[in-house]
Amino acid sequence: IIKGILHSSNVSSRFASRALSTIPDSSFSRSKLPPPVTLYQYKICPFCCKTKSLLTHLKIPYTSIEVNPLTKSQFKTIPIPDPTYKKVPVALIGSSRLNGSSSIINSLLSLPPSSRPLPPSFTSPTSLKWHDWSSSHLAVRIYPSLTSTFGRSLKAFSYIDSVETFTALEKVTSKYVGAVAMKFAAGKIQEKYGIEDVDVELRDSIRTWSE
User: How many CA atoms lie within 13 A of 27 on its CB side?
Assistant: First the structure.
């Protein structure tokens, strides 16, 4: 699953993209560009991938900043501080700070569109159903599958090796300490959502979407 279906966390991005791609393409006009968007993220975070999928679908340019999963020092550089919030994604859209994928997505959908409005199907019952499903059901099965063993977790965190803004020490500590921490966190997530066999349930989830 890690090597095939769950290559990195692209599965969450694909699912979000498919849910959105069932409607006609829509983008912002060049003469009426949206405000600058900066996204603070973890590359393997399903909720970050979901947010990026919408940005890509709407053709909204954005800058992504990789957050150190241990120190989260990048949060200190956000112009609008919020010391109570330590999760990702966090977005700066113009002069506004938004915490969490749901808040970010709702804000993106409310930005002034091009000469043709956003298709009504963006907020249709079917779209809203799969939007909620991708967060409440799919995403909570992707992360435990990625990190259910130390080997899988270490492989998932190997993306840190290519983060140019991290020092060599940050890469080593974040990769190995993060892999251990998420291995234990995976068990807590499974317990919270009553997941017995995460790989089986993830395959069932993919089958549900495909059907």
Answer: 9
d(CA 209, CA 133): 10
| Beta strand segments in the chain, E | 37-41, 63-66, 90-93, 96-99
Of 190, 211, 203, 181, residue with least CA distance to 68: 181
State the chain's mean pLDDT as an integer.
83
Token output for 94: 């113009």
User: Does residue 2 register a pLDDT over 50?
Assistant: no
b vs e for 141-169, b when ≥16 Cβ sit within 10 Å of the residue's Cβ? bbbbbbbbeeebbbbbbeebeebeebeee
Contact 156, 180 (CB under 8 A): no
On the question of a cis peptide bond just before residue 83, with omega within 30 degrees of 0, the verdict is no
Residues 135 and 15 sit within 8 Å (Cβ to Cβ): no
The answer to whether the beta carbons of residues 154 and 175 sit under 8 Å apart is yes
pTM over 0.85: no
